[in-house]
Write a structure and sequence with these properties.
Layout: H1 52-56, H2 78-103, H3 117-126, E1 132-134, H4 140-145, H5 150-157, H6 190-204, E2 211-216, H7 223-234, E3 239-245, E4 248-249, E5 252-253, H8 267-270, E6 275-279, H9 283-298, E7 304-309, H10 330-333, H11 339-349, H12 355-379, H13 402-418
Parallel strand pairs: 1-2, 2-3, 3-7, 6-7
Antiparallel strand pairs: 4-5
Helix pairs in contact: 2-3, 2-11, 2-12, 3-9, 5-12, 6-7
Length: about 425
């Protein structure tokens, strides 16, 4: 009897590994890219289980020729699409410049969102300005789309005397109450449950504003993600819950966060949430699905989980060298293309923007970024100028506690003695 219960094979642990490492050939054939327009757009009153195919498939609107096809194709005016293109171009030009500035020692740290611009830009354009964004460090596109001055972002990146965060945040961790952009936190995942809490409060107060939030593929492995989904489902919180699956979490590939057997979007089905998996490099698909989820939230139908399937085209941050863990050719082989090039192709096809006009638009945003850069650099770059010393004591507590008041007085007296005030 005892023998019969013994294992006949020795156990082995499965540790997910990426299909290739630097030096290996790149082969993205495992990624199934369904034709654009193939998936239906259900009624917003649909149940979670009606979205099974949408959670396991991939919603796409733009086909290979740049034509918008299928039920999800949004009826957007060409001017709005051109504005979307401009916003994405501006984000990319901003990222490129700030990355270079870090290499020149003008800031300590920078994070690009190259290849993922459609995610924040298209969604923010699909929502109302009063809706509250709970971003990660890769959604600078939301802030730029809402018209926050890029020179203010640069002042923060340079940690200079005009830094709107007064030196209390990392360079890229922006915050803007006026633009409905919740303070970015370095503690991954926290914004997910905070967004759900904010959305619950909005509903509890009978307000009309909804929330939208983002989490990276790697960060879905944090408990905050699951807590967020549960509360959002139980209380039908009016919130868009986005997973940005850019395939990498620094050097860890998506499989280690658990998408080898089921898509990230399908996590939502277990919580009874309608769930969509979307081509994140397709501006029209991102816009259309966000608008659908927003309509559900505004009709008191609750939260939607959206996986935005995309590719992190650049390094994780200026502190990272991706050639050490992924093939340098990966980006060229990415099967879903580039969001800016795809929207440009569509605009040319519908006769809304010629390639020459697109080139002029690009030159215009590069100049806009350069001008803002000059203005910020006049105030000072990292090390040459700094936020006021008192800044670190401000806005930390509503009423300053006695011990901080004492520390502030000591620091200021010390600075005055040393001529650093
Ligand atoms: C709680 C926590 N754990 C770990 C880190 C370190 N860290 C910073 S970014 C990052 C990778 C996140 O990857 P992902 O969630 O996929 O987002 P992406 O950077 O790809 O946008 C890690 C592990 C952190 N900041 N916070
Ligand atoms: Mg990631």
């Amino acid at each position: 009897m005892e023998d019969a219960m013994k294992n006949t094979v020795s156990l082995s642990l499965h540790i997910p590994e990426p299909a290739w490492r630097p030096g290996d050939p790149v082969d993205f054939r495992r990624i199934k890219v369904p034709p654009a327009g193939a998936l239906p757009r259900p009624d917003i009153r649909c149940a979670s289980e009606d979205t099974q195919k949408l959670a396991h498939g991939l919603i796409r609107v733009l086909d290979d020729q740049g034509e918008a096809v299928g039920d999800w194709a949004p009826a957007l005016a060409p001017e709005i699409l051109v504005r979307g293109l401009r916003n994405m171009m501006l984000v990319r030009a901003f990222d490129d410049r700030m990355y270079r500035q870090q290499r020149q020692g003008k800031t300590s740290f920078y994070v690009k969102c190259s290849g993922e611009e459609a995610v924040a830009v298209a969604q923010t354009m699909a929502l109302d300005d009063g809706d509250m964004c709970f971003p990660t460090y890769r959604q600078q596109g939301a802030l730029i789309t809402r018209g926050y001055p890029i020179v203010e972002m640069m002042n923060q990146i340079y940690s200079n005397a005009a830094d709107p965060m007064l030196g209390r945040q990392l360079p890229v961790m922006y915050s803007s109450k006026a633009r409905g952009f919740f303070t970015i936190s370095g503690n991954l995942g926290t914004q997910f449950s905070q967004a759900v809490g904010w959305a619950m409060a909005s509903a509890y107060k009978g307000d009309s504003r909804i929330a939208y939030t983002y989490i990276g593929d790697g960060s879905t492995a944090e408990g905050d993600f699951h807590q967020g989904l549960l509360f959002a489902s139980v209380y039908r919180a009016p919130v868009l819950l986005n997973i940005v699956n850019n395939q990498w979490a620094i050097s860890a590939f998506h499989g280690i966060a658990g998408d080898e057997h089921a898509t990230f979007a399908s996590r939502g089905l277990g919580y009874g949430l309608p769930s969509l998996r979307v081509d994140g490099n397709d501006f029209l698909a991102v816009h259309a699905t966000a608008a659908w989820a927003a309509e559900r939230a505004r009709a008191n139908l609750g939260a939607t989980l959206i996986e935005l399937f995309t590719y992190r085209a650049s390094a994780h941050s200026t502190s990272d060298d991706p050639t050490r863990y992924r093939s340098a050719e990966e980006g060229e082989h990415w099967p879903l293309g580039d969001p800016i090039e795809r929207l440009k192709q569509h605009l040319a096809r519908i006769g809304a923007l010629s390639p020459d006009d697109a080139a002029a638009l690009h030159a215009e945003v590069v100049e806009e970024v350069r001008k803002a850069g000059r203005e910020a650099e006049k105030v000072g770059v990292f090390g040459a100028s700094r936020p006021p010393l008192q800044g670190m004591f401000q806005d930390v507590y509503k009423d300053q506690p006695w011990h901080l008041a004492r520390q502030e007085a000591e620091v200021l007296a010390d600075a005055a003695r040393n001529g650093n005030a």
